[in-house]
Amino acid sequence: MAIKSHSLFRSWQYRSTAGGLEDNLTLNNVPMFQPQANQHLVRILAASLNPADYRLSEFQLLHKLVFPKPASPGNDFAGYIVKPAPGSTLEPGQLVFGSAGTNFMYGGAMSEYGTALVTNVVPIPRGLSIVSAASIPIAGLTAYHSIFPYSKPGSRVFINGGSGGVGSFGIQIAKAERRHVTVTCSTANVAHCKLLGADEVIDYKTHNVLQALKESPHKYDLVVDYVGNDHDLFWKADEYMNPDAKFVTVAISHHLSFIRYMLAAEYMPGFLSGAKRQHVTVFGKPDREVLAKIANWMVEGKIKPVIDSKYKFEDLREAYQRSKTGRARGKIVLEVAPEGEVAV
């Protein structure tokens, strides 16, 4: 099957993030990619936003040293194969999802076309929508890798931050494999977290989270921090966690106080830092097997896609503004192409 190609396509790009990523984005016409031997050329139909898109690019030293000029944001995409990599079993026109580009910090998913490494893409199973597939990659992989290696069926897991993109996956992934889940969220999201399967919910608007954990009759086997806003949760972890339990941090921030905390928690010996539990830092890493597993769980109904909002391709700036409020419930998705587009 031959796919119609174009010489130019539209891509959201930026050269600076001074004043905020969203204020520097421009929609440009750019030449069509010439993919490398280990890359597919893909038509992007939908893409989802992640806080890492702007938190890292807005770290000015990192942006100056690492980011290309111009750069295009976005990692998570769903679309179809235009030109498969040599030797691939994927076919032109086949629906796929995964990670765009070669670096999650500037993958270029906020574009009409993109490239994707063969190791970062899987087929979309029958019964899963384009938007739902686009919501999975970073959030789903991060949730999975922050929970599964450090717990087992029956483990008591505490998730700090249950209503966002990663947290919504975290609750459901943990419950899919029989963990007991306690989460934090605001008053407005208590019912949402319970609907996703949380066994217990701590409303941080009305309760002191650390105190509630210490007062629990049970010790926790794993703590997963998707927020990173209260470092005492780690420094006082021995008061509510089992001795061999791990404390996993996923949150990303370029603020100096957070960097100091992470360095002390992760790298300083406990007798110097005062840490009484092992700290682990987790980032969502490419994993085709896990992507396929989460997608199949969605088709089976074990996991529900949680979409906060959808934006038109031309409204990416507004989408990032929504993300920066910190009030998104689940994932924010950019509809790059009109709904129902198929390969031609």
Number of helices: 12
Architecture of the largest domain, according to CATH? Alpha-Beta Complex
Return the average pLDDT rounded to an integer: 94
What general form does the structure show?
Answer: globular
When the domains are counted, the total is 2
CATH topology of the largest domain: Quinone Oxidoreductase, Chain A, domain 1
Helix and strand succession? EEEHHEEEEHHEHEHEHEHEHHEHEHE
Backbone structural class: alpha/beta
Number of strands: 15
Largest sheet properties: 7 strands, mixed
Q: Mind telling me the C-alpha Rg?
A: 20 Å
CATH superfamily of the largest domain: Medium-chain alcohol dehydrogenases, catalytic domain
**Percent in strands:** 25-35%
The CATH class assignment of the largest domain is Alpha Beta
Give the CA-CA distance, first to last residue. Answer: 9 Å
Runs in which pLDDT lies below 50 for 5 or more consecutive residues are none
Share in helix: 25-40%
Keywords:
12 helices, Rossmann fold, 6-stranded parallel sheet, 344 residues, 2 domains, 7-stranded mixed sheet, Quinone Oxidoreductase, Chain A, domain 1
What does this structure look like?
28% of the residues lie in helices and 26% in strands. The protein has twelve helices and 15 strands. The strands form three sheets. Strands 3, 4, 5, 6, 7, 14 and 15 form a seven-stranded mixed beta sheet that branches. Strands 10-9-8-11-12-13 form a six-stranded parallel beta sheet. Strands 1-2 form a two-stranded antiparallel ribbon. Strand 9, helix 6 and strand 10 form a beta-alpha-beta unit. Helix 4 crosses helix 5. The protein starts with 7 loop residues before the first strand and ends in a 9-residue tail after the last strand.
